[in-house]
Amino acid sequence: MRFSLLFVSQLLAFGLCSEESKEDINVFGQSQNGIDIDKQRTRFPDTDIDSVNMVRIGDMYYVPILAGTPPQYILTLPDTQIQTTIFADLLCINCYSGIKICSKFSNYQSSTFKTIQRVFDRNDRYYSEYGYFGYETVSIGSKTLEKAVLDITTNMTDVPKYFYSGTRYLSTEYLIPNPSLHNVYNTGVLGLGYPLENISNDVFFSRNNSILNFLGEKKFVTIDLREDGGKFSLGLKKNTNETIVWTKPDGNAGFGFKLDSYTFANGILPLTDMTAEVNPRYEEIYMDSDIAYKINTYAIKQYPNCTGFNGKHIAAFTSGNYTLKLFPQYFMELEEGVCKSKIIPIDPRFISPKKIIFGQSFLRGNAMVLGYEEPKIGFIEKTFQDIMPAKLI
User: Can you give the residue ranges of the Peptidase A1 domain (predicted)?
Assistant: First the structure.
């Protein structure tokens, strides 16, 4: 039986960094950018909520976790589209396009990890690559357990199309190859995807090896980027005066949801068969080229110098009772004197133009809730509403 867990060629590039940046992102000791990560753990008594402060590097937020034998701190990007937790090994010296990976994560030392055979192993005259699958101790906040992880080690000169474990295939064709991913300084991916129902429990991406193991009776994960540094919570973390508005599920197993319409330039346009996902693994927002062009053109016209943002959104997408608003201060950025947008047109060779993927450029200023009892995604309402008048086009 074959199936695909979408994870890009850039999967093997997670940690690309310069010599100068290595010291800044030393997450394997007790500090991260001068922050004592041990002190960043927040335990909420008498609840099933366990939170850690996310670490911001550049424009991206990461979840620090403790993993391995011996345990080491690793910065991970939360990923809602895969179930697997993936770490890069110290020996991954040429993970992508000949650029050395910035990973200090040493080989696993536990016997359970070493005795499990390689899940892929390919060699030829040009390159070799291999990876291990096994159980390792992983801690998020105060919750510690053995979790199945996939470890990648390679000295290849090109990215393989497939990794394999028996007849189960893991595709590396994850998302649009994007040059901006060179700023991703993580050495791992924390899989938050909804567990697949049709996979047996003896494989590493099964229900029993998912993020569900970390959760209490209420099967929720909360990612809140409304605070400086952000907050990642195992459980439902919101204030008593806040409510959750759920999006409209698309009917498939996973955290995708339907989009009904979008508001742009004071008008409402219906959307047909359009679905969306929110994935904080990415900084950008990916969408249909026509919609992206309209929003980007309007945004640059309104804020040509990336200044003077007035706190108003300039476009919004409706899903059921919730409206996903795009604020220019989050997706526009001045680079070398030029105002650029992080809304990227979808390349139809990789993704259907009927899909929108919202990255951290959307999620900043929001709190997202993932529900695992049944697949659903919602947002915690702020205490104020940004209302933009609209008329039907």
Answer: 61-380
